[in-house]
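tool=predict chain=A
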Amino acid sequence: MALSTDDQIEFVVHEDGPALQRLFTLPLQARLDALAGIRGISSFDAAGMDLLRQIHERGDGFRVEVDDPRYPAAVERLIKADAWGQIERELPRAWEYQNMALPGIHHPDRIEVTLTLGHPDDPVFLDRTLGYYGMGSTPGTIWLVAWPTDYNETRIGACAVHELAHNIRTPNVDGPFNLAEWVIHEGLAEVFTVVAIEFNILAVTIGDQLHALFKCLHRQFAVEVHHASPTLPRPF
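tool=predict ok
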């Protein structure tokens, strides 16, 4: 994965909704290989296949070995909510804001984004993470998982922007991260999402005064980082 300091990021959003719909029409024994094909994982890639099994047999991904009639309907709901379209619209919008606020930062020149269907029978996933979340701290990739609900189906794009904040902050912060740094990492990503696309991922009422405070925090963060490291500014 190449890093750049120019003003361009290529966002590659894998629109896997129709492919997932087709997957759920296949016999159970064929679904893991079909899912690997969707993800671009070779059946000879042992590590890739192990990770896929971990996500979809023990993690928060849908259960690839289970024939659950809720799965096709959930994918259809994500498609109707334009989940992949949300991602495609909001990521460039957020990057434009970040690049205007703090140009010249180190960032991936290309970010690949994957959204998969979640596991509806995990109470921690549904109750604690509200049925959706992402992972974006590895520059160049953003992975999202969602089980659509009334609450989260309009927030998939905002979730991707939260992960973009991690994706473009990680190359500019010395690691490894400790717990305190991760708390900061997450808090800044939330603020970035509210300010960059004016979308409240937390579903808390954001008044004009609080929104102005978020903007102030973003500006102050940029100023402090620039003074601390003018040759390597740290973005959100």
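Residues 208-228 form the longest helix (21 residues). The chain is about 50% helix and 10% strand.
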